[in-house]
Amino acid sequence: MPSINVNSFSFLNTKYVLESVFLLSPLILVAGVMFNIIDTKWLLSRTIPLVGLYCLFYHREGIKQNWANLSIRLLLLSGAAAFVYFGLTHLIRGDDFSFSRTLITCLAYIGLVPWKRFSQKHIYYVFVISSIFCGLNAGYEYVVMDIKRVGIATNPIPYALYCSLLALVSIHLAITSNDRLLKGLAVLGAVMACCALLLTDVRGVILFFPFVAVFLAMKSIDATPRKIVAIVVIASLSVVCSYAVFKTKIDQRIARTLHEVELVEQGKVRTSIGIRFALWQFGMETIKDDVLLGIGDEKLEQGIKDLPNHRVSKQPHLHSQYLDTLARFGVVGLLLLTAFIVSSLLTITDNKKLLWNVSPLRASIVLMIVVAATTDVPFHHTHMVYLFTVLVGVLIMIEGRDEERNSDSLR
């Protein structure tokens, strides 16, 4: 009977684990580190090229398997089209290159890593642990650092959207997972991420989130009348409990919002809401200058600076992704950006037809981005470009697979 070399097996298993951590390191940075720790985004620009080169040398078969996935192929192609257009506007008229550079970096990571070596469970653990860490970080900023609107690694607005997306992932897993440990961590992650969201004090995202969360819950189960009632009751209790815990902070924010609305009605636009209205009005006028291709970054930002209201003139964008993209890049730019976002919900059939490939989780993520984009510009922040692209890309690659690792993993 042949002997088993235990030392050799242990070495191979350790090598496999270390390699897996290396391949997942950009995902870990995006989900758990970049939004919580200041000045860590630069790590991604170093880590992703290293991981990509490693995969080109050692996992070429995995790249072929990725390309065979028709859903991810559509995301890659639509993202590449957006990269070309926005890249050309940078070359021709000097528009900012941050979005294009970040987008192509994310697409490379999604396309090169052999995702079939990872089970759903491994990826989900990254997300739920990130949700827990997100809540701990927000609590530390609020209690220890005495920061009243958490999210200092970026700013409160993109941080709020980050918290909401992690909360959605955790809520989905809390509902659907059959693994007790993962389900328990997902429940904790959902609570922690929701608490972090409330501590950002970002009105738009906080207002939209409960509706998107209920939508996700409805789509994640067989929606019988009894289950629908249970979801509504749980959602209502969650809102009531959240209000009870954060009553003072919420009351102050509501009072401030009502006061801002009163000032806007009086024609005063020096408040947050008033500034947005002024910018949206300016954006509607600016779009007319070049509907097809937009006027570009320089002209738009100079136009904002020339506005008479000092607080409005200091803003770097129009506080609406749709108006901002139309003004900068025209209808072509908005259509390409929309196609990239929606492509995460589509697939290509073998006979080249487009079909909806909608999972409840990806649909809720896209919905959260779409509604948040009405009052903010998520893709103006490269942090959010990283998060959305990597998150939906990885979910496409792992959804619909068995929980078991595929045959190339060591047992």
Fold and architecture overview:
73% of the residues lie in helices and 1% in strands. A two-stranded antiparallel ribbon has the order 1-2. Helix 4 packs antiparallel against helix 5 and helix 6 packs parallel to helix 8 (180-200). The longest helix is centred in the first third of the chain and has 28 residues, at 6-33. A hairpin with a 5-residue loop joins strand 1 and strand 2 (354-356). It is mainly α and 411 residues long.
Please give the structural blueprint.
Blueprint: H1 6-33, H2 41-58, H3 60-68, H4 70-93, H5 98-112, H6 120-144, H7 156-176, H8 180-200, H9 203-220, H10 225-245, H11 247-265, H12 272-287, H13 296-305, H14 310-313, H15 321-342, E1 346-348, E2 354-356, H16 360-372, H17 382-398
Helix pairs in contact: 1-2, 1-6, 2-3, 2-5, 4-5, 4-15, 5-17, 6-7, 6-8, 7-8, 7-9, 7-16, 9-10, 9-16, 12-15
